[in-house]
Amino acid sequence: xxxxxxxxxxxxxxxxxxxxxxxxxxxxxxxxxxxxxxxxxxxxxxxxxxxxxxxxxxxxxxxxxxxxxxxxxxxxxxxxxxxxxxxxxxxxxxxxxxxxxxxxxxxxxxxxxxxxxxxxxxxxxxxxxxxxxxxxxxxxxxxxxxxxxxxxxxxxxxxxxxxxxxxxxxxxxxxxxxxxxxxxxxxxxxxxxxxxxxxxxxxxxxxxxxxxxxxxxxxxxxxxxxxxxxxxxxxxxxxxxxxxxxxxxxxxxxxxxxxxxxxxxxxxxxxxxxxxxxxxxx
Length: 282
Known about the structure:
This protein is an alpha/beta fold. It contains 12 helices and 5 strands. It has a 5-stranded mixed sheet, sandwiched between helices. Strand 4, helix 5 (118-127) and strand 5 (133-138) form a beta-alpha-beta unit. The longest helix has 22 residues, at 2-23.
């Protein structure tokens, strides 16, 4: 009984201390990264802000604002896609809230982002070592959403003062470009392709596989088991992307550990632990 009372008192005190931390917003952990085309068009910017306001619980006035330029996107997509973006092509914009949750959550405006799905962004960010925060992605007009990844990664760098290694950026961008190409060239949905990549990456990382032929076999087996049909060319594209991600896994893990140290534990998880103590003593 005494242990139960002590645990209950601790729980009440900790909730009182931690509640403001859950509801308040640290402005440094809140970043909006506008595509340069959107930022320079007030009507476009207002449309993007409307989506952020309607879908997040944050005051945009508290956010740090940055732009992602065509040069930023081209710098990490060079040698991957055959497309070079111009200053009028960067429409996708992202809001990053590091105060929201202790896991990664992606909210995509599917009425405007026509190709890249939430699962595809999540898969690419996982390859970059980004596993925490709430990411919102939209565009003022319809766009594929591929360029948004550069803005998302830039937002994490600005919010945390931690630079993502260039090789890791290239691998994440290569992955989303490969997935986008496969979705465009096949009847598979973005979520199906993301599932194939995620399941394959899990097995590749678990068994530390670097041989491309083995990765191809893994992908084909996953496709068969999930009734997903991909061409040989599509499978090879995904295998190349996964192989590249695996080659930088050590750097991605190192960045992930640093990022998690900066973001810290979400206070709600501490409250859950205290409830566990209370129950165990009850």
